[in-house]
Amino acid sequence: MHDNLIILAGGASSRMKKEVVLNNLTEEEIAQANERSKGLIGVGPNGRPLLDYLLLNAKKAGYKNIIIIIGEQGELFKEFYGNQDKNNDFHGLNISFAVQYIPEGRVKPFGTADALFQAVAQYPEMNTQSYSACNSDNLYSTAALLALRETNSPNAFIGYDRDALDFPSERISRFAIAKLDENNHLLDILEKPTADDLEKYKDSEGKLRVSMNAFKFDGAMLYPYLKNCPVNPERDEKELPTVLLNTIKDNPNTALGIPFSEHVPDLTAKEDIAEVKEYLKKYYPELNWES
C-alpha cells in the first residue's frame, strides 16, 4: 500500500468568490471566502480550516506523506501546516508544498491536470510510486481514503452513488457520471449527462456513479498522459478526468471505480459554508489526532 496523498489546493476558487446575499454568515466568514483558498476557510471550532479534517481522515487512513499543491499566493497554508517548503511535521504527517504556477498569458490556473503535473515535476519521486490525489475543499471519509490505499488496481477513483450525495438535485444533475463495466473498470466519463443518458450509465448495481476527484494513480503509468494532457476546449483547462480516460485508452482495465455510498461535504460556494459547519459540529465534535 502506498502512503502518498497529493491535495489540490491551488485553484482560483472563483465560484466561492461570487457575491451573494446570505444572512447566515459572519463578516469574517465572508471575508475568508473572498480571500482564502477554499480548504482554508475556518469552518471548524476555533476557526480551524476544512483541510484539518481532511488531513485527520488521511492520517487515520494510513497516509504519511502529504503534498499540498498551493497557488503562487498560497503562503497562508504555511501558517497553518508548516513554514518549510518540505517535510513539515503536522500531527505526525509529513507535509510538503508544491506550487501551481500560472502560465504566462493566463489569469487563472490551468486546471487540475496541470496542478498535478507541476507537483510531480517538483517531486519527481512520485513518478516511480503510487499516490492518491484529491481536492482540498471536499471532506472525504477515512474509509474512502483507505479504499484508495488498499486497491490493487494501478489507477482508481471513488465512484460515489449519486443518490447518496446530499446536494440539491439541480447541482447533482451537473455532476459528470462514470460508465463502468461489470467488474467496475472505468469505460467512460460523461461530462454533462442528459436524462436519456442516465439509464445507459447505470452500473451493475443499478447505480449512477459520480467522481468527486478522489483518485489513486500509478505514477509511472500516468506521467506521459499527464504531461500531454489536451486542453478542454469548453473550460480552457487541463483536467484529470481527461488524463484518466486517455490512460485507459492505451491501458484498458487499469482504472477501477470503487463503489461508495455516502455524502461528501463540499465547499464550492458561500452557500456551502453554513452546511459544512453544521456537518462538522455533528460528526466531528472534536479533532482527535491521537486516536
Automatic annotation (TrEMBL):
Domain Nucleotidyl transferase as annotated: residue spans: 6-244
UniProt-recorded name of the protein: Sugar phosphate nucleotidyltransferase
Gene source species: Flavobacterium frigoritolerans
Source taxonomy: Bacteria, Pseudomonadati, Bacteroidota, Flavobacteriia, Flavobacteriales
InterPro entries for the chain: GlmU-like, NTP_transferase_dom, Nucleotide-diphossugar_trans
GO MF annotation list: nucleotidyltransferase activity
UniProt keyword annotations, A-Z: Nucleotidyltransferase, Transferase
